[in-house]
Recover the amino acids of this structure.
């Protein structure tokens, strides 16, 4: 580990990471920093992104190292927020994503922020946050993530029928293999399962699997398990 200001340990970045792996738009944002700082921040951001799924705690260490060097950049605060969310540090994630939203004006963080409220046991606050967004301004993926979180908050409150209604939108039946459509169908099928409507749930897990070309969900396994259960019964 290296050290920077105030003796704070800084995680080592693999030598093969240069910072050029970042999206050009992000690199342009880092262009406001002095070059050595920009390179250091970029490398930490790349490391954080690569570790996000497999080692969120280490990803958060890298994101926080970037934050110490560039706390006024929205992209850096976003990275901290997302890493904290993956690590289950919901209070920290909310603080960082609120800061990112103030800096950038973007609403794309709202689904994650609302899910953090759920993680903190505050589904009502999650619903308030969801209601504060103009959905017409959202792209497909963000709009669907917002629906999934909203339905999750309804489920947290024991409102299963309401959760199903939230998810029953035109996008559910779109002819698309978009990952967001797969996630929407999966959430719909899972809610049907909770309602005891297993035959319908199996059908929607199958449709989720059809749209999930990247294998992001276990829809195929859930479908097979439900079919097996129904055959036995």
């Amino acid at each position: 580990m290296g050290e920077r200001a105030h003796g704070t340990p800084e995680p080592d970045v693999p030598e093969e990471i240069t910072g050029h792996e970042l999206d050009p738009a992000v690199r342009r944002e880092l262009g406001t920093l002095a070059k050595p700082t920009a390179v250091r921040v970029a490398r930490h951001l790349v490391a954080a992104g690569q570790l996000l799924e497999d080692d969120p705690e280490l990803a958060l260490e890298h994101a926080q190292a970037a934050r110490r060097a560039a706390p006024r950049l929205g992209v850096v605060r976003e990275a901290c927020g997302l890493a904290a969310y993956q690590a289950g540090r919901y209070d920290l994630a909310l603080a960082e994503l609120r800061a990112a939203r103030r800096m950038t004006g973007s609403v794309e963080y709202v689904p994650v922020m609302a899910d953090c409220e759920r993680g903190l046991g505050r589904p009502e606050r999650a619903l308030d946050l969801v209601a504060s967004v103009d959905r017409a301004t959202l792209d497909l993926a963000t709009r669907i993530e917002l629906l999934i979180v909203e339905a999750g908050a309804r489920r947290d409150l024991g409102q299963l029928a309401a959760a199903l209604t939230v998810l029953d939108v035109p996008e559910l039946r779109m002819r698309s293999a978009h990952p967001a459509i797969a996630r929407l169908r999966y959430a719909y099928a899972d809610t049907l399962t909770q309602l005891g409507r297993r035959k319908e749930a199996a059908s929607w897990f199958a449709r989720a699997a059809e749209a999930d070309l990247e294998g992001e969900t276990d829809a195929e396994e859930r479908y097979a398990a439900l079919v097996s259960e129904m055959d036995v019964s």
In short: Strands lie at 2-3, 9-10. The chain has a mean pLDDT of 93. The first strand starts at residue 2 and ends at 3.
